[in-house]
Design goal:
Layout (H helix, E strand, L loop, with lengths): L14 H5 L4 H16 L24 H4 L13 E7 L6 H8 L5 E6 L6 H7 L3 E4 L6 H10 L5 E4 L4 E2 L2 H12 L6 E11 L6 E11 L15 H6 L3 E11 L6 H21 L4 H13 L3 H14 L7 H14 L3 H14 L4 H13 L3 H13 L8 E3 L2 H16 L3 H14 L4 H13 L3 H12 L6 H13 L3 H14 L4 H14 L6 H10 L4 H13 L3 H14 L4 H13 L1
Parallel strand pairs: 1-2, 1-4, 2-3, 6-8
Antiparallel strand pairs: 4-7, 5-8, 6-7, 7-9
Helix pairs in contact: 9-10, 10-11, 10-12, 11-12, 12-13, 12-14, 13-14, 14-15, 14-16, 15-16, 16-17, 16-18, 17-18, 18-19, 18-20, 19-20, 20-21, 21-22, 22-23, 23-24, 24-25, 24-26, 25-26
Length: about 575
C-alpha cells in the first residue's frame, strides 16, 4: 500500500440522494429516530438554530457541483433554503425586499441583468451573493442562471419588488425544514398584488418553493413557469397559505405603457419560437386584454383553448379572460355562449359564475342573475391554481347583487346587501355610496344624514361622501348649494369621475348644454370610452355652434354604442349644421 500524494478523488456529497429525489435531512432524522428506539439512546436536546448565518463573500462563485457539498460542514453550516432572485435597477425596492426574506433563508443568490444604479451594492451590503448575466429578453434564462448558483436543498424565488410578511417567512422556513413527502417537488404560494387603488387586491398562485434539482428549470421567456418541469419529473405540488406582497408595481400610465411594450416585444419572440404553445397564446391573450385590444385577445384565447389540455392550470383563467374580452368588445351573445360552455366543465369556478351573473343582468334575466350571485356567496369554493380579485366573491358580488335587487324593485333587500358590504368592508367607498343612493331613492333623508356622519369616520371617507352630500342637498331642493359642494370637491379632486358626472348633469339640466361644455370636456378626458358622456359632449358642442367638434365626438360615441338611434339623429344634425 502506497500513498499517492499527487492524486485525489473529489466527493460531491449527497449527489446520489439528490438525483433520486430523496430528502437527506428527512432520511437522517428518520434513521436517527429508529436507532434511538432500537437501542434506547436518549436524543440530544434540540439546539437553537440561527436561521441566517453571517454573510460571507467568496472570492469566486462555485459551480453547482462544487456548491453541493454535505449539508453539514465542519463549521456546522447547513444550507437548506436558498433565495434566488433576478434584479435590474431596483435600488428603491431591493432593500425592503431582502430585509424581509433574509431572516428565513440560508443564502441569498442575486443575478443582476444590467443595473446602472446601486442595486448590486445594496444586495452585497445585505449579504447576498451577486453575479451578473447579460439580459436577452428571457426571464427564464436569467432565473435559471440564479438556480445554477444555489446550494440549498430547496429554492425560493421572489421578485425584487416583493416582500414577505414575518408570519409567512416563518411558515416558509418551517416548510423548507420539513418533513416532506418525497413525491412533493414544489409548494404553491400566493402573490398579493395591490391595484392602483388602495382597495384593490389580486391574488396570484405561483410555485415559489421547489427542490433544487437539475431537471427543475424555468420555461418561457416571460411569465416564466417551473410547474411544467415538476410535472415532467413526475412530482406533485402542494397548496399553501404562504404569500408575498408584490407592492412595487408602477401603476402610472407611463409605467403601464413601458411594461406593455416590453411584454409584447418578448411575447413576439416567444410566439415565433413556439407558435402553437398554449401558454404562449394564453399570455398574448391576457396581455392584449390588459392593453384594451379585446378582439385580438379573443383570437389568441380561442387559439389557446383549442390547443390546451382540459387539466392545464391556465384553462380556467383563459375562459374567464375570453368571456371578459367578448363582453368588453360588445359581443355579449358570444360571451354568454362561451361562459355557459365553460361552466359545464368548471362548475365551481367563481370567476366564471361572476361573469355569468353579469351577463344574466345584461340580458335582463334578473332572477338568474340573483341566483348566480347567491351561489357565489353561499357555496364553498374549491382551491385551484389561478389569479383572482380577492374581493370578487364577497363585496363585489354583493354590490352587483344589490343592483340586481334594485332593478327588481326590491329596495329593502338591496339595502340589506349594501349594509352588509359596509359592515364587512368599511374601506370600500362604493358600498357607502350604494347604500346612500338606495336611501335617497326611498327619500329617507334622516338615514342619509346618519350614514354621512358614519362615513366621515370610516377609512372610506373622501370625495364620494361629498358627492352623496350634494345629492342629498339637491333632493332637498337646494340645487345651488349642491353645485357649490361639487365645485369644492372638484377643486380638490379635479378628475373625480363621480363628482364630474353630477356637476355635468346639474349644469346641463339647470342651465344649458353649452354651460356644461367645459365640465363635459373634463369628464370626457377622464372617461374617454363612455358613449353617453361623448353623446352629451356632442350635444353641448352643437348648442355652442361647434358642429365639427360635435360630429367628431358623436362618431366616436356611435363606435362605442352603434345601436343608439338618438346619437345617430344628433350626428345627422351636426353634419347638416356644418
Amino acid at each position: 500500500c502506497v500513498i499517492a500524494r499527487d492524486a485525489f478523488v473529489h466527493h460531491v456529497g449527497s449527489a446520489s440522494f439528490r438525483a433520486a429525489g430523496i430528502d437527506l435531512g428527512e432520511l437522517l432524522a428518520r434513521n436517527r429516530d429508529e436507532y434511538a428506539q432500537k437501542w434506547s439512546t436518549a436524543p440530544a436536546a434540540a439546539q437553537p438554530r440561527t436561521v441566517m448565518p453571517e454573510p460571507q463573500q467568496p472570492d469566486s462563485v462555485p459551480d453547482i457541483a462544487e456548491a453541493e457539498a454535505d449539508s453539514t460542514t465542519s463549521q456546522g453550516f447547513r444550507c437548506r433554503l436558498s433565495l434566488c432572485m433576478i434584479v435590474r435597477d431596483n435600488e428603491h425596492t431591493i432593500r425592503p425586499c431582502l430585509e424581509s426574506i433574509r431572516p428565513w433563508v440560508d443564502e441569498m443568490i442575486v443575478v443582476d441583468t444590467g443595473s446602472t444604479d446601486r442595486t448590486p451594492d445594496i444586495c452585497r451590503e445585505l449579504g447576498a451573493r451577486v453575479s451578473f448575466f447579460e439580459w436577452c429578453d428571457d426571464f427564464s434564462a436569467a432565473r435559471n442562471e440564479s438556480l445554477r448558483h444555489a446550494r440549498g436543498e430547496w429554492v425560493f424565488w421572489m421578485d425584487s419588488d416583493d416582500s414577505i410578511p414575518d408570519d409567512c417567512g416563518c411558515g416558509l422556513r418551517e416548510l423548507a425544514d420539513g418533513p416532506h413527502d418525497p413525491r412533493v417537488l414544489g409548494f404553491v404560494c400566493q402573490v398579493h398584488c395591490p391595484g392602483a387603488g388602495d382597495q384593490e387586491l389580486t391574488v396570484v398562485d405561483h410555485v415559489k418553493l421547489f427542490r433544487n434539482r437539475p431537471e427543475l428549470r424555468f420555461e418561457h421567456r416571460i411569465h416564466e413557469q417551473i410547474l411544467p418541469a415538476i410535472r415532467r419529473a413526475g412530482g406533485d405540488v402542494v397548496l399553501t397559505d404562504i404569500h408575498v406582497v408584490h407592492s412595487g408595481a408602477d401603476h402610472s400610465e407611463a409605467g403601464r405603457a413601458r411594461k406593455l411594450e416590453r411584454d409584447f416585444r418578448i411575447l413576439a419572440k416567444d410566439l415565433a419560437e413556439r407558435p402553437e404553445h398554449p401558454f404562449v397564446l394564453f399570455n398574448l391573450g391576457m396581455t392584449c386584454e390588459d392593453a384594451g385590444r379585446h378582439d385580438d385577445a379573443v383570437d389568441y384565447l380561442r387559439r389557446c383553448l383549442t390547443v390546451s389540455g382540459p387539466d392545464e392550470s391556465h384553462v380556467r383563467k383563459a375562459y374567464a379572460l375570453l368571456v371578459s374580452a367578448l363582453t368588453k368588445a360588445d359581443r355579449h351573445d358570444e360571451a354568454d355562449t362561451v361562459c355557459r360552455s365553460a361552466l359545464e366543465q368548471l362548475t365551481d369556478d367563481r370567476e366564471l359564475l361572476f361573469r355569468q351573473a353579469t351577463l344574466h343582468h345584461h340580458f335582463g334575466r334578473l332572477e338568474d342573475a340573483e341566483a348566480a350571485y347567491r351561489r357565489i356567496l353561499e357555496e364553498p369554493a374549491g382551491r385551484h391554481l389561478t389569479s383572482v380579485d380577492i374581493h370578487l366573491a364577497d363585496s363585489k358580488t354583493r354590490h352587483n347583487l344589490a343592483l340586481v335587487l334594485e332593478d327588481r324593485g326590491q329596495l329593502e333587500r338591496a339595502r340589506e346587501e349594501w349594509r352588509e358590504i359596509v359592515r364587512r368592508r368599511p374601506g370600500y367607498p362604493a358600498g357607502w355610496r350604494g347604500l346612500g343612493e338606495n336611501l335617497l331613492r326611498q327619500r329617507d333623508h334622516a338615514e342619509v344624514e346618519t350614514l354621512l356622519a358614519a362615513w366621515a369616520d370610516s377609512p372610506a371617507d373622501g370625495p364620494e361622501r361629498q358627492v352623496l352630500a350634494a345629492r342629498l342637498t339637491e333632493q332637498r331642493g337646494d340645487v345651488a348649494q349642491a353645485e357649490r359642494i361639487l365645485r369644492q370637491t372638484l377643486s380638490q379632486q379635479p378628475e373625480h369621475s363621480g363628482a364630474l358626472r353630477e356637476i355635468c348633469r346639474i349644469v346641463f339640466e339647470q342651465h344649458s348644454p353649452a354651460a356644461a361644455l367645459s365640465w363635459l370636456e373634463q369628464l370626457s378626458h377622464v372617461e374617454p370610452d363612455d358613449a353617453a358622456v361623448l353623446h352629451n359632449l356632442g350635444a353641448a358642442y352643437l348648442a355652442a355652434g361647434r358642429a365639427a367638434d360635435a360630429e367628431l365626438v358623436l362618431r366616436r360615441s356611435l363606435e362605442l354604442r352603434p345601436e343608439s338611434e338618438v346619437t345617430r339623429l344628433l350626428l345627422d344634425q351636426a353634419v347638416r349644421s356644418r
